[in-house]
Amino acid sequence: MGGEVSDLVFGKSGPTVILLAGLQGVGKTTVCTKLAFYLKKLVHFSAFYLRS
To answer: What are the boundaries of the signal sequence (predicted)?
Structure first.
């Protein structure tokens, strides 16, 4: 949030947690799915997400 850009930093062990927050209907689930596929392709990690 804001004008700064930063890289994702993955932990050496354990999961890396990415929090997506937003109002209803803004596309959080879609972004989460696209991000999971992108990261899987980029770094060959298995990705999953929990929706609440």
So the answer is: none
